[in-house]
Specification:
With 198 residues, the chain is mostly helical. The protein is built from 10 helices and no strands.
C-alpha cells in the first residue's frame, strides 16, 4: 500500500509542473492564465503565443503523464500503480497546489499516461482526435471525443474493472474541465483553431 501512496504523491507533484506557465514566462514574460481563455494548457498557449510554444507545451504536458505512469508502474510493479500515478499527474495538472489550483484540462497529460500504459489505445485515440480536429477545427471536440472513447476502449481491450474505473474517472475529469466548451459547442459559439497560428 505504501508504494501506491508514494506513486500517487509523486504523480501529483509531477503534474504540478506547469509547462504552459513556464513557457509563458520564458517566451513573453506573461502568466498564460491571464490571457486568452485563461486555461493553463497547450491549446491556449497555441492561441496566445503561437504554434511553436503550443507544441512545446503539449509535449511537456504529455511527458508529465507518461513519466508519472512509468514511475508508478516501476514502483508498484503493476499497471494499476502506473494508472494511479498517471491519473494523479492529471489531477496535479488540472488543480496544481503550487499555482493556487488553477491549471489546465489534462488532455495532453492523459495522453501521456495512455501512451505509457496502453500504446495501442493511444494510437487509436490520436488518429481519432486528429481526424475530429482537422474536420471540425474544434480542439475541444477532439478532446471530448477521446475522453469518452478511452474507457470504452479499455473495456474492448479486456482491461480489468479497476483499470476501466480509473479510465472512467479520467473521462469524467476531462468532461468536467470542458463544461464551458460543451456549452459553447451546443450553442455554436466555440472558438475554432487556426492552423496558421496567430
Amino acid at each position: 500500500m505504501g508504494k501506491y501512496i508514494l506513486a500517487i504523491i509523486l504523480g501529483y507533484l509531477i503534474g504540478n509542473f506547469a509547462t504552459s506557465y513556464v513557457a509563458g514566462k520564458l517566451i513573453a514574460n506573461i502568466d498564460i492564465r491571464n490571457h486568452g481563455s485563461g486555461n493553463a494548457g497547450a491549446t491556449n498557449t497555441f492561441r496566445v503565443l503561437g504554434p511553436a510554444a503550443g507544441t512545446i507545451v503539449f509535449i511537456g504536458d504529455v511527458l508529465k503523464g507518461l513519466l508519472a505512469a512509468l514511475i508508478g508502474r516501476w514502483l508498484t510493479g503493476t499497471v494499476a500503480g502506473g494508472m494511479l500515478a498517471g491519473t494523479f499527474a492529471v489531477v496535479g495538472h488540472n488543480w496544481p497546489v503550487m499555482f493556487n489550483f488553477k491549471g489546465g484540462k489534462g488532455i495532453a497529460s492523459s495522453f501521456g499516461l495512455i501512451m505509457a500504459l496502453f500504446p495501442k489505445i493511444g494510437l487509436i485515440l490520436f488518429v481519432v482526435v486528429v481526424t475530429v480536429i482537422l474536420v471540425s477545427r474544434y480542439v475541444s471536440l477532439g478532446s471530448i471525443t477521446a475522453a469518452v472513447l478511452f474507457p470504452i476502449l479499455l473495456i474492448i481491450f479486456g482491461q480489468p474493472f479497476r483499470i476501466v474505473l480509473l479510465g472512467l474517472i479520467l473521462c469524467l475529469m476531462a468532461l468536467w474541465r470542458h463544461t464551458d466548451n460543451i456549452s459553447r459547442l451546443r450553442m455554436g459559439k466555440e472558438n475554432k483553431i487556426s492552423f496558421l497560428g496567430k
